[in-house]
Amino acid sequence: MELNTGHWLMVSVDCQAITEYLEMRFHSVIRSIASFMFILDEILFLPFIVYVPALALNQVSGINLHVIAVVIVVVCVFYTFVGGIKAVVHTDAWQVLVMFLSVLAVAVLATYYADGWDALFDDASKGGRLIFTNTNPSPYVRHTVWSVLIGGFSYWTSFNAVNQTMVQRYMSLPSLKKARASMAIFTIGVAAFVSVCCYVGLLIFQMYKDCDPLSSGLITHDDQLLPLFVVQSVGHIYGMPGLFIAGIFGAALSSLSVVLNSTSLVILEDIVRGCFKMKPSERASTILVKSTIIVLGFVAISLVFVLEQLSGILSICTSMTAIAAGTTFGLFTLGMLVPWANTVGTAVGGIASALLAGWISFGTQFTIAAGELNSQKLPISVEGCVGNVTMPQNIWVDEEQVFPLYRLSYHWINPIGVATAILVGALVSLVTKPTEMKSLDPDVISPVIHRFLPKDCFQGRNLHAQAHKNLLNSST
């Protein structure tokens, strides 16, 4: 519903930037809050984009990880800096194609050299890797049906419905119908890609079910497991390691270029022009955008040094980016579905959401780093290892002594942020002069709520739209 109403609203109110909607619905202050959240989200995402391919190439080639990270950033900054959005679009298309082909090739060839499908799923089942019916209601269990469905839905919807990097793609299409079609294709593609990745995970488990590579010293981080698997399973096939690395780099460069481009433009439009009301010339704007791209490149390299000290890329990435994503999703949902929401309530809800989600995310990471909390891992074995390998002893910790919010599954951080923004925003709006329904423009409210609005709202609809456009034009 959020995806459909989000697309409808952007077309209905004629917005090119997703944050323009918040200014039309509330005030420029709310637009600035959402812009800062977007920038924070993208900055937190930067090191993950760089670190993953650098780690993969380091495992395959032995080249220093930091050198690889610098090269990745320099190459991406260069073609984004010189080519702009056209270079980003053209390179993205080829990079995504290479990414899909590389992962699919690894899955097919690794299956060919495996012990067969029956053995594959039998080993995975015995090893506890095929768990689809864990309905434990506890929010402290890492993966359950509820955490994956609710948390996954909230996270992916916040990324696809109210993120500028995605919305600018939808708005570039000629009609709402084609925007929805592109969303459907994207959804099917992502589902297929994630499914293939999960299947590769089963292949990895079958290969190392009797000898954990981390315990045996073959790797030093969990995140090196996939590159090791590629080298040992299909590395003897000419060109396969190179194709795999190309796929990883394609995914990284595609994401990195979009983040650099969209973040620099948001800083120009929403912060410089919108928040500070500055009116730089075209030349000054170009210099600012390109300078921002370079600065973001340095930030990405710097944060890689922090990220490599941590473990568990997926959970860390999800929990960190959920801070801003959940808050932003909550702000838009509040505006679309709660007619009485006002500027004060929305601002308080957004700030409360960001503080709570940030507290949980960073508090959890600090607790894990201090050794007070262990990440939940499935059982492993070293019985099939060659040589004298001993099973690493897990340090027992009494998790009941850890603050409850720090023990939450990382899947719940985004839904908590969304719920906080909506509930706090709605309640504060009720006690601080809620928005008059009669003066509300129905175009800024989701169509599913229109039946609850007074008929007076729909009179003078064109006047509302023109007034909103004049407001946006006067602020730029």
From TrEMBL:
Membrane topology, record value: Multi-pass membrane protein
InterPro entries recorded: Na/Glc_symporter_sf, Na/solute_symporter, Sodium:Solute_Symporter_SSF
GO CC annotations on file: plasma membrane
Keyword Transmembrane: yes
Main subcellular localisation: membrane
Stored PROSITE patterns: NA_SOLUT_SYMP_3
Location(s), subcellular: Cell membrane
Biological process terms in GO annotation: sodium ion transport
Annotated transmembrane regions: 33-57, 63-82, 94-114, 144-162, 183-208, 243-267, 287-307, 313-337, 344-362, 412-431
Classification via Pfam families: SSF (PF00474)
Protein's UniProt keywords contain Lipid metabolism: no
Keywords: Cell membrane, Ion transport, Membrane, Sodium, Sodium transport, Transmembrane, Transmembrane helix, Transport
GO function term, MF aspect, one: symporter activity
Similarity remark: Belongs to the sodium:solute symporter (SSF) (TC 2.A.21) family.
Name the UniProt record assigns to this protein: Sodium-coupled monocarboxylate transporter 2-like isoform X2
Source organism per UniProt: Drosophila pseudoobscura pseudoobscura (Fruit fly)
Gene: LOC4817241
